Structures are given as structure tokens and as C-alpha cells.
Amino acid sequence: MSDDTAPATKADIGRVEHSMQKPEGRFQGLEEKFQRLDGTVQRLDITVQKLGSDVQRLDGTVQKLGSDVQRLDITMQKLGGDVQRIEKKFDGKFARLYETDDQILAILGNIDRRLTPKMEDHEKRIVHLEEAMA
Predict the structure, then answer these.
(1) Which string of b and e fits 91-118 if b means at least 16 CB within 10 Å?
(2) CA end-to-end span of the chain
(3) pTM of the entire predicted model
(4) What one-character-per-residue DSSP string does 50-78 give?
């Protein structure tokens, strides 16, 4: 009989079983690694989902901030218009005050010009009266 057709001995069967145990051990090790990888992938999936919801919340916050900024911009524009109107009013009022101030100064100047000669005349008379009384 040739070696191919010879019945297997216990030693042959033992060698075959032993040689099969090595790949089985390797397969078990690979299976454990795949299970760990699967757990890691699941944790990564959960993390990605959480990040997605965080990004959505941030997007909503950014949109709210954008609308707040737009409202503030509109308010600032309105305030700018109000400030310009107030400045115009004050400019007009100050111009009138300056005119009035100039008019008052002119009146006081006229009064001073009219009264100064009369006062000097009265002072001369008082001096003459004092000299006459002395």
C-alpha cells in the first residue's frame, strides 16, 4: 500500500489535531480582537452621534446669535438716526442761543455806552458839590 491509501495511525491523527489547534487558537484570538474592535466601533458610533447632536445645538445657537446680531444692527442703525436728529435739534438750539447771547451782549453794550457818559457827568457833579461843600 502506498502512503496515500494507508490507514491513518493515532500518531497521524494526533499530528493533524495538533496542527488544527494552532489555527483554531489564532482564529479565537482574531475573534476576540474583532469583538474588541466591534465594541470600539460601537463606542465611536455613540460618540459620533453625540457630536452630531452637539453640532446641531451649536448650529441652532449660531443661528440665534446671527438673528440677535441682526436685531442689534437694526437697533444701532435706529440709534444712529436718533442721534443725528438730536444733533440737528441741538445745533439749531445752540445757534439760536448764540444769536440770543449776541443780542444780549449788544444790548448790554448799548446800555453801557449810554450810561457811562451820564455816570461820568454825575461823578463830576458830585466832585464839584464835594469841593463846594469843603
Answers:
(1) eeeeeeeeeeeeeeeeeeeeeeeeeeee
(2) 180
(3) 0.41
(4) HHHHHHHHHHHHHHHHHHHHHHHHHHHHH
Other C-beta atoms within 10 Å of 83: how many? 10
Which pLDDT score is estimated for 2?
Answer: 52
In 3D space, the residue among 93, 51, 59 whose CA is nearest the CA of residue 85 turns out to be: 93
Q: How far, in Å, CA of 75 to CA of 53, rounded?
A: 33
pLDDT at 1 over 50: no
The C-alpha torsion from 92 through 97 and 102 to 106, rounded to 10°, is: 130
| Separation of alpha carbons 100 and 125, rounded Å | 37
Q: In whole angstroms, what is the distance from residue 45 CA to residue 73 CA?
A: 41
